[in-house]
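Tutorial, part two.
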Amino acid sequence: MMIRDDQQFAAEIRVATTSDIPALDALITASVRGLSRAYYSPAQIDAALTSVFGVDTQLITDGTYYVIDGPSGIAAAGGWSGRRTLYGGDQMKGTDDPKLDPRTEPARIRAFFVHPDFARRGLARQLYGECARAARAAGFRRFELMATLPGEPLYLALGFGAVERMTVTLDHAVDVPFTRMTREIGVGAPVVRPVREDDYDQWKPLWDGYNAFYGRKDATALPLAITQTTWQRFFDPVEPVFALVAEREGILLGLTHFLYHRSTTRIDLTCYLQDLFTAEDARGQGIGRSLIEGVYDRAHAAGTDRVYWQTQSSNTAGRALYDKVAKHFGFIVYTHDW
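Running the prediction step on this input gives:
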């Protein structure tokens, strides 16, 4: 029943280097061909790959392009820029790409590509979070980007708004639609990502808050050994237990823990979302929903078609969200401990 294979991996972000260019070229081709078919015609895809989509080496030189490695190659890539170019690889750029003024101009979100095998895993959200932190540290307060049609739903979910729809005529007189979008930096959806070992100091207070909500505090608090064992299981490759956290600008705002198990009524594994918690001062910002959707994405990628969880009937605030993202079938839970 183990899930930790090529569908589950440590999604760590690193800065791209020039040695990544061949792998990035392959990723871009696979991403565009695999994820654009429902939006663009074969002629549009071919024209875009020839004239638009490709590596912008200036991003690598500037150290603002990031990759996430998969088990057998780059799973996702994306970056930001403090330069004038809004979109496109080296093949469509001129020689001049001046720097922007962060006081008056928006930074760019650039060249996000995810391999089809790792779509809907939250990788693009992780990359965006890294871009937002870096761009804000550089003094920028707004982002602008040029979205493809398949990319537009992602950017809408990240809080971008469409400001202009346009059609670009490429080689062989092929017209390809794009959408220019903008958003403020540091406002909107958090980044949902797998927990890291260096998150413990921020994860632990959230975990304690979650347990306190269910009465496990003070004299009835969980033994430290349980907390430590749970934490270690998240990073144990033989354990089917996983953790996601919601992060904004380096601050953890929420957590969720989930696991996979067999079921007598289905062949595929079932995903149980066991724990969900949002910091008190971050509630009402869509963090719980983002964490649930993060579990949905990972369960779907693992080949699981059901995610379920339970809560107390008195959890009015939680149930107001759960009724929007799942169905309640009326089951009552019994337990017997000894």
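The longest helix spans residues 21-35. In part three we will examine how such features are distributed along the chain.
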